[in-house]
Amino acid sequence: MSFTEQLAGIFVQESAIPAQYALAEEIHQREYLCNGEMKSWDGTVHEVYSPVCIRTESGLKRKLIGTYPICTEKEAFEALDAAVAAYDNGRGQWPTMNISDRIACVEKFIGKMHEQKDIVVKLIMWEIGKSYSDSVKEFDRTVEYIYATIDALKDIDRDSSRFTIEQGIAAQIRRSPLGVVLCMGPFNYPLNETFTTLIPAIIMGNTLLFKPPKHGTLLHYPLLKAFRDCFPKGVVNTIYGRGNVIVPGLMQSGKVDVLTLIGSSKVANELKKLHPKVNRLRAILGLDAKNAAIITKHADIKLAVQETVLGSLSFNGQRCTALKIVFVHKSIADEFVEQLSAAVNKLKYGMPWEAGVALTPLPEPGKPAYLRECIENAVENGASVMNENGGTAVESFVYPAVMYPVNRDMKLYREEQFGPLIPVVPFRNLEETIDYLIESTHGQQVSIFSNDEKEVASLIDPLVNQVSRVNINCQCQRGPDVFPFTGRKDSAEGTLSVVDALRSFSIRSLVAAKLTDANKHLINEIVSEHESNFLSTKFIF
Questions:
Q1: Cα–Cα distance between 47 and 54 in angstroms, integer?
Q2: How does residue 539 score in pLDDT terms, banded at 50, 70 and 90?
């Protein structure tokens, strides 16, 4: 049996799918959340096909798992108007609500979110092909993030519950919301990455337009009623449809105060340019990345291989934090590539529900063809596929390929492949690696592998000014979530972490007064009688 036939064999007949992982029925979404109501939709819908193919009499076919609305600008503007009305120039119920009551709403949401865990996890798996175990982890990590966000907000509010007195002036400094937020998340972490912006935006008192990612839309449907039931009307509104149809008008309206997008820098640039009030628009963006690993002659090769496999192929390399290019010192390159190729070929491939599976089908229909172009381009320019069967593809599945030696003439040298290809570049001088990062339009992270302290130090000092995180002897990654997550150049705008996200979706505001007897009495009366939600010494436990 050829390897292609072996790959084709991972796709099974529908009857062979284990019952505990199967969807009980197709999910045909015919409603969306707007202004506190689940509104019916009887217009055009988008069919959602899983990257998991089903073996049929006529061949392998992507499994239809459901449909969702393709709304128009009309529905998008209705959602925008609802969010604008709910914010009401900062006078709405939600932006003026005290912190403890907002936290209570979010805690109620967590409870209702838990009730939908089983179906949300299954939809993550079926919609984007993520392994079942990783889909469970994504859900659990998202809940943990929400709890951490609540705790962080309590800490911020406790610090703000006192008055600061300077030069005869008393002031209370707190954080206040920014307005209407347009939130668009990515397909690779459609729940977690989306909620790391959505939840901080909401809890800080903003109102929201939420557009789910193209791949990973249906999984949010079971949560819409929870949003409806836990927040005042108009605080959370969903918009569906073609992004290039409904989003430009929203930006051109000038009514969006914050754009948060995790995706393409090209898309972000185009959207920002559409806004008529550039100085009033805040952008919080997680964008492209081409994170490099630098493996020096003093590296522990075994460790470097282990971390490179994890860093480049976790979720098939479809992570912005993935290692997408690997620089290896010429003196150890052959040995490294040999060990790397062997390690890659040990990874288990198959269907997302299989225990221990590491490689699964890809959700983007055009991705296998693009990866094939990258491989062919690299081969034409002098590289080879180093691991056995590397690059073999069947329908939505692409077997990982280790490409070596990669050079600057190849697409893989600069383009973000966002898939299971590992470009390996040999180098002789560390300056070559530093120059690559200086010239790169990306600036998220880098990984350094070396056990020589002087060598590591010589790389740290220039590289912290090129990327936002330098990892020593480990893969690039986002977590822990309390660490700042951002990037330089075209890789990000704004900073995300549990605390930084709360700051990103708010602004410091203060109430100040001269310490006259009359003002002291006035402020004491406001505080003691709980007349203001902002001016308050209430301590949240």
A1: 16
A2: confident
C-alpha 540/C-alpha 204 separation (Å) is: 15
Domains defined for the chain, CATH in brackets: 73-286 (3.40.605.10), 291-487 (3.40.309.10)
Residue linked to tokens 């690039």: 476
* Residue 132: partners with Cβ closer than 8 Å, 6 or more residues away: 21, 121, 125, 352, 353
Contacts (Cβ under 8 Å, ≥6 apart) of 191: 120, 124, 138, 139, 142, 216, 219, 220
How do residues 173-204 score in pLDDT, each as one tens digit?
999 999 999 999 999 999 999 999 999 999 99
Which residues, including other chains, have CB under 8 Å from residue 9's CB and lie 6 or more apart? 1
Give residue 461's Cα distance to chain centre: 28
Alpha carbon distance 247, 439 (integer Å)? 32
Q: Does the pLDDT of residue 247 top 90, yes or no?
A: yes
- Are 146 and 222 in contact by the 8 Å Cβ rule? The answer is no
- Written as one string, the DSSP assignment of 483-516 is S-B--EETSEES-BSHHHHHHHTEEEEEEEEE--
pLDDT digits (tens, 9 = 90+) for 392-426: 999 999 999 999 999 999 999 999 999 999 999 99
Q: Residue 224's pLDDT is what?
A: 98
For the residues 121-141, what does the mean pLDDT come to? 98
Close Cβ partners of 244 (under 8 Å, ≥ 6 residues apart) = none
| Total-model pTM | 0.96
Could you give the CA distance from residue 220 to residue 249 in angstroms, rounded to a whole number?
A: 24
Spatial distance between the Cα atoms of 499 and 506, rounded to a whole number of angstroms: 11
**Residue 464 to residue 434: CA distance in whole angstroms:** 11
What average pLDDT does this structure show over 322-334? 98
Average the pLDDT over 472-479 and give the result.
Answer: 96
Q: Where are the beta strands (DSSP E) in 7-58?
A: 27-28, 31-34, 37-40, 45-56
Distance CA 43, CA 170 (A): 57
- Residue 278 scores a pLDDT above 90: no
445, two tokens: 């992270």
Pairwise CA distance, residues 485 & 474, whole Å = 16
Distance of alpha carbon 197 from alpha carbon 149, whole angstroms:
11
Residues 48-70: what's their mean pLDDT? 96
Q: Which amino acid is at 110?
A: I
Asked if 310 and 477 count as a contact pair (C-beta separation under 8 A), the reply is no
Number of Cβ atoms within 10 Å of the Cβ of 160: 19
Strands of 362-496 (E only): list them.
Answer: 384-385, 393-394, 397-398, 401-404, 421-427, 442-443, 445-449, 469-472, 488-489, 492-493
Query: What's the Rg (C-alpha) of the chain?
Result: 25
Q: How many CA atoms lie within 13 A of 406 on its CB side?
A: 27
Cis check: omega of the bond before 480, within 30 degrees of 0? yes
Helices within 293-329 (DSSP H only):
301-313
**Residue 520 parent element (H or E):** helix 517-528
Give pLDDT tens digits for 333-365: 999 999 999 999 999 999 999 999 999 999 999
Q: How many other β-carbons are positioned within 10 Å of the β-carbon of residue 355?
A: 9
